[in-house]
Q: What sequence folds into this?
């Protein structure tokens, strides 16, 4: 069974911080270090959009322009976990945040079509 499980979402005020985690499990992720990982989000009434991605080694990192300087993606391959540290949150960051895994190391590809496995999502709500 392949699983990506997100956690860390919640209700916060504008300017606050949250750290999301995504833990991978299952036989497919026995080689977690061979997957590029990403975070996407979907706000009510909108399409799911790319937020951030990180390559196998962590050497390649990519962000949506509107989160640059506020969000930081990182990974711990030993723990099979990817993180999204979100600082200076804004109401427009409100969305369901999804973790995704890509077989391969093309983290620069920001379309969700290039990702093979998805978590169930965690809600982030930022009040003004």
A:
């Amino acid at each position: 069974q392949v699983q990506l499980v997100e956690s860390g979402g919640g209700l916060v005020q504008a300017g606050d911080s949250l750290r999301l985690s995504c833990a991978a499990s299952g036989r497919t992720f026995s080689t977690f270090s061979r997957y590029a990982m990403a975070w996407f989000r979907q706000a009510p009434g909108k399409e799911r959009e790319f937020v951030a991605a990180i390559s196998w080694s962590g050497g390649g990192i990519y962000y949506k322009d509107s989160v640059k300087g506020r969000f930081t993606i990182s990974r711990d391959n030993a723990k099979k976990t990817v993180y999204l540290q979100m600082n200076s949150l804004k109401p427009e960051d409100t969305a369901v945040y999804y973790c995704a895994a890509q077989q391969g190391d093309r983290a620069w590809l920001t379309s969700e079509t290039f990702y093979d496995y998805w978590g169930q999502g965690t809600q982030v709500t930022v009040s003004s």
Q: What stands out?
A: The chain is about 0% helix and 50% strand. The radius of gyration is 14 Å. The chain has a mean pLDDT of 95.
